[in-house]
Specification:
Helix content of chain A: 25-40%
Strand content of chain A: 15-25%
Number of domains of chain B: 6
Oligomer: heterodimer
Strand order of the largest sheet of chain B: 1-2
CATH class of the largest domain in chain A: Alpha Beta
Number of helices of chain A: 12
Radius of gyration of chain A: 24 Å
Distance between the termini of chain B: 41 Å
CATH architecture of the largest domain in chain A: 3-Layer(aba) Sandwich
Strand content of chain B: under 5%
Structural class of chain B: mainly alpha
Radius of gyration of chain B: 34 Å
Number of strands of chain B: 8
Largest sheet of chain A: 9 strands, mixed
Number of domains of chain A: 2
CATH topology of the largest domain in chain A: Alkaline Phosphatase, subunit A
Shape of chain B: flat
Largest interface: A-B, 100 and 109 residues
Largest sheet of chain B: 2 strands, antiparallel
Helix content of chain B: 40-55%
Amino acid sequence: MSEFLPTLSRRALLQGVSCGVGSLALGSLLAQDLPAANQPANPLAARPPHFAPKSKSVIFVHLVGAPSHLDLFEHKPALNKHDGELCPQEYLQGQRFAFLRGHPRLMGSKFQFQPRGQSGLVISELLPHLATVADDLTIIKTLHTEQFNHAPAQLFLHTGFGRFGRPTMGSWITYGLGSENQDLPAFVVMITGAVAGGGNSLWGSGFLPTVHQGIEFRSGGDPVLFLSNPPGLSMTDRRRTVESINQLNQAQLADVGDPEIAARISQYEMAFRMQTSAPELMDLSQESPHTLAAYGAEPGKGSFANNCLLARRLVERGVRFVQLMDEGWDHHGSINTALPKKCREVDQPLAALIQDLKQRGLLDETLVVWGSEFGRTPMLQSDREQAGRDHHKDAYCVWMAGGGAKAGATIGQTDELGYYPTEDPVHVNDFHATLLHLLGLDHERLTYKFQGRNFRLTDVAGHVIQKAIA
Amino acid sequence: MTHSGLFRFAVCFGVAVLLTSPAHRLAAEAPSPDRVDFVRDIQPILTARCVSCHGSDEQEGSLRLDSRSIVLQGGVSGPALLPGEPEQSLLLRRVLGLDDQERMPLDDEPLAEREIALLRRWIAEGAAWPDAASAADAKIRAHWAYQPPRHAGLPQVKNAEWVRTPVDAFILARLEAEGLAPSPEVERSRLLRRVYLDLIGLPPSVEEVEAFLADDAPDAYERVVERLLASPAYGPRWARPWLDLARYADSNGYQADQYREVWPYRDWVIRAMNADMPFTQFTVEQLAGDLLPEATLEQKIATGFHRLTTCNVEAGVDPEENRVNQIIDRVNTTGMVWLGTSLECAQCHNHKYDPFTQKDYYRLFAYFNNTPLEVKGDGVTYDFIGPMMDLPLAEAQKAARLELQSQRDAAQQELDAALAARAPAQAEWEQQAAANLAALPANIKRIVNLPPGKRNKKQQNDLTAYFVGLDPAIKALKEHVAALQKQLDATQPPTTLVMIEDQPRQTHVLRRGEFLNPGEPVEPGVPLVLHDLPQDAPANRLALAHWLTDENNPLTARVVANRAWAEMFGQGIVATEEDFGSQGEPPTHPELLDWLAVEFMRSGWSQKHLHRLIVTSSVYRQSSRVTPELLERDPYNKLLARGPRLRLSAEMVRDNALAISGLLSEKQDGPPVYPPQPEGVWRHVGRNAPKWSTETDDDRFRRGVYVFWRRSAPYPSFVNFDAPDRAACVVQRARTNTPLQALTLLNDPAYLEMAAGLARRVLTERAGDNAPHKLDYAFRCCVARAPTEQELRHLQDVHDRELSHFRANPQSAKTLLGKTPVDDLDAAEFATWLLIGNILLNLDETITKG
């Protein structure tokens, strides 16, 4: 190593480096001997929020395809009463449907609802575990979106815009706050089932620097693409090669003096650390049998339960934004059998996640969100045997838990069919403004200049839902 | 937004101050019964509420409300005042929020009713405005980018010897003014590698470097430049940035993200680049090739440019909404690519910062509004049906296809005859079958049990199909027809997406940009702030294309020259390549930008000429070494006192490594290819989603521009190196430096295959050399220069260490080599060189143009 000592003073080199695309952390190798004030700008370094935050990290669960709010959280006795009747005309005026044709009939819920916990929040029998943590939930019953098809609505949910090209919530938040952990990505995505129609854009960084894009952790194969060494190469072998690369890069740095090379060296160090930290993170066998059982997780398996447990392990390690995507909720048909099945997959792990975070004192600083691109119609799709529900964008339910959300609160009311908001409608922009607020970010101040304009996650709208905040 | 917050504060403050002025107090307490007085009643309103955006500092919409003459003459929206006609005056209409425009003042409280009443009365009374109260000599400062570029004289410089080309004079003049000196010329091997990567996107071979180093002729470098400009490898290199602009991809985007066949357009771009097609023609053919008289096949292929928009075929999609979204994308893309302007804002309201109105936007929209729907659905299933064109087959293919067609037709006739002969027997068979139900499959049993009148069409068909299938001769005939059909399908001519004019539609301003909310009708036309269309210009895309490349267009040549500059130096003379408007960065060297633009047009819009101008300059040939002083003075190298040093683009990182490893296939044209990628990257929701099937032949090693581009999941190693998803026009790619890039180069099996390729090259091409010579060769393959003594010593240590490691652990060597054919090479040695190749392909210098 000594033969490659740079001829330039490291400090002199670093003075010119400021934040911008391409200059990531100058890692330990160069930065350790600098006073804090001279530390080069690392776009993923933790940054202070605009004001005191309630929450430090987010676990955003996206039930891809859109679960039926009318069978889970929105109990509508009138809908049951009018089951099988033709849908009143006024609900059909000016509406578009994916599959419904002609004059559809109403369909009540086949499932039993009852009030739960102190708050009396009504939850259906399909989510018995979640019912046990009802008092930790803040439910919004009047979320509405502008998009009606899956992919555009998914984009709208994550970016506040129905077409491609905008940054997602997770990337806005890591852009605003950086990360508490430099050995793992700041924004992690985990997927069960097929990838949603919006594709990689649902965790993309849009026009923000690409360091803010979500990194997919995979349950099969490498947890991160290209993480593991080729067969025949041990970690010791890899350490030797990375050291060689860095020493040769160091020699080049000494010759040409480009700080990008210093950044490259630190990225190789981080890559090497990730090769250890990511598998360690993914190794659920370190969890107690009690914890595994609570979630229904099984080490080595790809499941939503495992992802929930991994989400806890990620936020525990300071990862800022964890996005869980679970596909299979697009119940145009067979809703009475398919929905209970999907609920069984997510109910226990989600309840366990909330309880686990609470026990570890993490729920106060972690916001857990149940979200989807839209809701479903009170009208029946298909015949009664194959019963399903179509897409519905004008009112649906999402909930939050922890992270400064007001536990036990219900925001908004809908009409007797759960079709339109009658009180406190919440637009996706409002929802985004609220999430940012809980993280100590003012949605009007979190801007990025692109093409001559200051862009925001909430575009030119959005109001914080004060009633949802503890 | 922050801006509006501040603005609001400023305005409130202004009002507070005004309230203390006696004149205003009077007006506030009792509106005067006599005539409205401008100085007393109107000017305070304008001053407090309007002139911060429409005054001496800023002139949004090219309007000033502190000058009578400008108010009467008007800004981009027309005269602001018609004395005597308050209801027709824009000044009043806009504060009332009429005409589908956002109410003024923008992002601020509306005017008070009393203030509006005063304005109305004042205009009705004739809008008297004393000269003394009108700003003297008020001018609208025209933004630089909307003035035509001028060929200014070359600046004087002290160090005239350094100036090789006019480009140098502009850069040096600024450096001298800043008290900086240019860097010395870069070493020749590095220069050669730099210009190879810039012009053809591939590194020079060791032999090419040696030949160049040995060439003492004064024009040695210029001859290399000419050779590279003429190389067929130039096209794929320079097509790549254009394909980002064109949002070229091989899939539709959205749910399912199905395959679309449009690769002939990609090949057209590559051919056009290689042929140095004048940018004027390049523009016209892409925007309106179909409208040219006697349009050729090639000109029609070129129109694929605006067919590269995404398309949603999800259930329940509204085909008209989809079509409108596509047109919006076409307008926005045209604005970014040719005008360096984001027009998007004007979709919903007049542009807040630049002089483009919402009407301007929909006038452009109207040019594209005659295209057909691209989605068709039956209410449940929707398909992509956008206009496509068959490409001609070669004569032999055509003949083979005709032959197959006639065979298929003959077989079909035979089958039809057999079916007709068999039909009468069905009724009898049904009776027998009803008596012997147990022998039937369940579904057929159900149908047989239904009375014939109760069967639906599908059931009837299923039953007939089952019945005729019982006859072995018919079964064989059916299989024969199917086999011939399959062969025929396999010889289908390729298709490509093209632009066509469908029915003319009346375009309307869309209120708030919503397709179901049409406002006033508009006709095709260009933004009023820019040069006029010729008097006789037809109202079609062809006229628009000619207008974009008219010599009077102040933007196009500058925008193109700036992008070429940015591609070489890492940032444009205007750093915001996508925004030449008032919110963009001003040019660092405005005279140079103008000179390049004018020279570009003068050369007949030759992109190769532009590239030649840049790479033959002394500016380009500087060393990229950074001194601490320079780093402090100019961290981003805006002044160019040093040469460019930039990480290669995603595709180039791979192309470069493929060339180094000796694996690169330079085959051009044809359908997209599937190089190795990890399992499970493609697993998307939806019908007819494409499948990844890894190539097993040389197509594994084709250049990145040919790799299948799926919008929802582009090639993962490209994504890690900042490739966009190509769902929308991208002008500037990010250039990041991340651990995922390290992991990709270290562990992606594709890169290990390349490391093995380099190992094989070294071991076979330099079989007789000793290790230091082999190392020297491998090093020069990667970075063109020879290693320093230190570097060589370090690599020698690696070599010795790894060789003894693999000799001691032969199993590790075997595992590492995996399926790599070792032939008669020594496995331990091969594994050692594979590891050395892995190290060399990971060097910062290898993935950097320096």
